[in-house]
Amino acid sequence: MTTDTLLPPACASRAIDDKALDQLFRAARSHNGWLERPVPEALLRQAVDLAKMGPTSVNTLPMRVVFVKSAQAKARLKPALAPGNIEKTMTAPVTAIVGYDLGFPDLLPKLFPHVNARAWFAGNEALIVDTARRNGSLQGAYFILALRAIGLDVGPISGFDPAKVDAARPLATTIAPTTGRVLILVWSMLTIKSCCVQQVYPNQRLHQRFVDQPR
Ligand SMILES: Cc1cc2nc3c(=O)[nH]c(=O)nc-3n(C[C@H](O)[C@H](O)[C@H](O)COP(=O)(O)O)c2cc1C
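ok -> structure tokens follow
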């Protein structure tokens, strides 16, 4: 079933083609090996600029990213990693630490200026953490798709000790230069690869029903 049979013509012409759908979804995999080719910083910035256009509640935009490239910085990450994630992280061209900023309410007067949204979060730490985790994770997903869209491959990992990464202060403080608070929790890391060799694990997607039929 293709969208051109489901949508009015004006909308069908906006659909991206099968090649793009393959690149973003069907053929996209979580990679564990790569070519020894540097990933230009301009591409990383482009991916972040695309990812930040995805929607977040109250335009909170809590995701913060640190790119780790040098052997010295990678060595500081190593003790935090699960054994199975060490080699691919140490040798990847770029590792992105994807975290969320619990100081996001302080930016709301700028990001969502038409109401006093900062007041909604004042003194409500549970709401701040819940909002940051949900929307930071959404932004992480947008970021994965943005990286794929511009031709890069990624391998997400959450097999690491976030507290150890969080404790690496010189890394963490660079995540949130715009806020006074440095309460960063890391939720995932991505190894980013320049057009990777196929080193992926066998897998399948279950074809279970994820939504009920309309009633
Ligand atoms: C948030 C997140 C955390 C993950 N953590 C790890 C990890 O720690 N180590 C690893 O080898 N793969 C990790 N993966 C990769 C998944 O296992 C992989 O995406 C899944 O098996 C589907 O495979 P595919 O993306 O190749 O289709 C993670 C993926 C996501 C999205």
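The first strand starts at residue 63 and ends at 68.
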